[in-house]
Design goal:
Number of strands: 6
Number of helices: 15
Structural class: alpha+beta
Helix content: 40-55%
């Protein structure tokens, strides 16, 4: 993990030295995570040095394809959903249709989101590696957002923040080449999802206070508003990005 986090390139010779012979084909070795839940794939992407594509290419060469696909898309059921599900189950029995939220499992493309936040440029090969083949046209994949933050105080007060889409994350990346990143996203994303995410607001807050569900929704910034804030001190770059966003609609 540390090698992928700090090195620009990982050679085959280094991989041969670092991979224990008995674990070469062991999925549990390749899918292991640290205490924060971070995988080997994420460490390679968090490394903001150049050659991210080369690092992932090397990783994919040695990692079993099934393990690689598992790490690309992370399934999770948020604690907030579990808590509300249990509460309403106790109140209404098995009638889940009365739940005020979508209780289905969500798919969160963390590696793709991180790539657009930590990497200066994202090329076609990197996109192809981070987009699961079976989910290329899935709305839930492209419309997923970065981590939902959940705060719990003695189970009486819960805050849930719904945050940034992949377009907003590409804009929030302060490294140069924002236009290149946005062009790459637009190229690989279905037009309907692109248009939907452009209008998406990046902030949503829900509260559960003393077992009474209350929704306090605050609209954040869409792609245009976020660009103006992010590039307030760089008007020329901001104008180029805003022009691109407008022409892409």
């Amino acid at each position: 993990m540390y090698a992928f986090h700090v090195k620009e390139k990982i050679s085959t010779e280094m991989m041969e030295l670092l991979i224990p012979e008995q674990f070469r084909n062991d999925p549990s070795f390749w899918e292991m995570k640290d205490k924060r839940g971070s995988s080997l794939l994420l460490f390679a992407i968090w490394n903001s040095k150049p050659y991210c594509t080369a690092r992932l290419r090397t990783l994919r060469q040695y990692m079993p394809d099934e393990s690689f696909q598992k790490l690309i898309v992370c399934s999770f059921l948020s604690f907030f959903i579990c808590f509300v599900f249990v509460f309403f189950f106790l109140s209404y029995g098995c009638d889940v249709s009365r739940l005020p939220i979508d209780y289905t499992l969500q798919q969160e493309p963390k590696p793709l989101l991180y790539a657009f936040f930590f990497q200066e440029r994202v090329d076609d090969e990197l996109m192809r590696m981070l987009i699961p083949t079976e989910r290329e046209s899935a709305a839930s994949f492209w419309r997923a957002k970065d981590q939902v933050l959940i705060y719990v105080y003695v189970l009486l007060f819960i805050n849930v923040y719904n945050r940034n889409s992949v377009i907003q994350i590409a804009i929030l990346n302060k490294r140069p080449e924002c236009l290149q990143r946005l062009n790459m996203l637009k190229k690989h994303m279905a037009r309907e999802y692109w248009l939907d995410l452009l209008q998406n607001k990046n902030s949503k807050k829900s509260k559960c206070v003393k077992y009474v569900l209350q929704c306090d929704v605050k609209d954040g910034d869409d792609a245009w508003e976020l660009t103006k804030k992010q590039y307030a001190n760089d008007p020329d770059n901001a104008n180029d990005i805003l022009t691109f966003l407008t022409k892409s609609t």
